[in-house]
Amino acid sequence: MGERDSLLGNDKEVYITPHTRRAVYSFMVLFGLASLLPWNLVITATGYFATKFAETNCTTIETGFPSYFQIGGIGSNVALSLSSVFLLKYVPIKPVLVTCNTLVLIILLAMTVMSKQSTVTWPMSFFVISNVIFCLACGASAVYISGMLAVASMLTPSAVKGFVLGQGSAGLFATVISIVTLSIPGTDPVQAGFYYFLIAALSLGLSLVGYVFFSRLSFVRNNTLEKEEEIEENIEAAKLSAFQLFMKTWKYCAAQLLTLLITLACFPAAMSSLKSTSPDTTSPWTTTYFLPVMTFLIYNIGDVLGRVTSSILPYPSKRFILPIAISRVIFIPLIYMCNLQPRSINVWFESDVWPAVFNLLFSWTNGHIISLATAYAPDEVPSRSDKSMVGTYSAFSCALGLVIGSLLVFPFLDILKI
User: Looking at residue 125, what is its pLDDT?
Assistant: First the structure.
């Protein structure tokens, strides 16, 4: 007989076999990967967009397009994450997930096709279209993430951790692809962009097919049925009020928000200005591989390891998760005192070893705390409907942490130049 799972409402004892548990976990890893891989691959294709936007003959667009993407993407992410808290309370989750997945898939297919088109005669239109569809994709992905966390929260803690692990793996996967691309001599950035978008579209297609099989698992059907029936019968979805839910889970939401706020205050914008202190300024390591490896590869490896270790070492406990999340603020001065350039303040940690160590610890704690806080929160409420709402709260807390952290980068970097 399978293990007893105490996450379900109506005082029923429900059993899940090890085989089903592994299947649910694997599907959730896939869904987490597909939820963020497109975003990671699009922002990795900087060479592609720089080449295309150079045709506008506008220096502001050519050099500043990452800022346009970041502002639009994060803005739509936060807005749609907040909307999801209300949307998923009254709309069945399954059609929302399928619609969002399909919409992002169509957008990525459109970007894949456009990458093969000449844009010399319409560069400004291409810039506007790219920004608009990127914002649409980010917004749809935000709703998808909220819905998937709602579903995972109704199932098991391992389902939640599987989804969070998949999200972390997306960054690692994109970074490895980027480094491999850099290692190929004479790589065409436009052709590389085509492959980035194609891989992202394939991951979305795979997740859409996977969700069809996932939704047919009896364990999934049984443990999400109550939520769907309540919506269809127009019964109030949550047994607790929104305020009661918040009071029960606020410390986990705060831990998620603060963890990602601190992370985005350092990574990727600030750490992208890290320079090697090696005296050999012409070596391939210094000119080509230092930043991708020291910043992105190490961060994503540590982040994934943290999400894995959360299942092996479930510490800190619920009581200490928020204080530990707050304590990560120490990483901000540690990282900013490495060789971030330009600066007028003295560098405290001159060796390249220090930023590598700080980055690994910084990213590991990010993945570990986010995974634990997201898994702890649904345990605080009794019914599946409440658990699903807690999942949407988690998604919004993470999105809000991302936007606040990304805004803090600019004053922090200005302090280095005083």
Answer: 92
Q: What is the largest CA-CA distance in the chain?
A: 70
pLDDT digits (tens, 9 = 90+) for 359-393: 999 999 999 999 999 999 988 887 777 888 889 99
Domain locations in the chain as residue ranges:
3-416
Please state the three-class secondary structure of the chain as a single string.
CCEEECCCCCCCCEEECHHHHHHHHHHHHHHHHHHHHHHHHHHHCHHHHHHHHHHHCCHHHHHHHHHHHHHHHHHHHHHHHHHHHHHHHHCCHHHHHHHHHHHHHHHHHHHHHHCCCCCCCCHHHHHHHHHHHHHHHHHHHHHHHHHHHHHHHHCCHHHHHHHHHHHHHHHHHHHHHHHHHHHCCCCCHHHHHHHHHHHHHHHHHHHHHHHHHHCCCHHHHHHHHHHHHHHHCCCCCCCCCHHHHHHHHHHHHHHHHHHHHHHHHHCCCCHHHECCCCCCCCCHHHHHHHHHHHHHHHHHHHHHHHHHHHHHCCCCCCCCHHHHHHHHHHHHHHHHCCCECCCCCCCCCCCCHHHHHHHHHHHHHHHHHHHHHHHHHHHHCCCHHHHHHHHHHHHHHHHHHHHHHHHHHHHHHHHHCC
Q: Is the dihedral angle over the CA atoms 160, 267, 327, 77 positive or is it negative? A: negative
pTM greater than 0.70? yes
- Mean of pLDDT values over 210-231: 76
Class of domain 3-416: mainly alpha
Please name which of 376, 370, 394, 254 lies closest in space to residue 306, comparing C-alpha atoms. Answer: 370
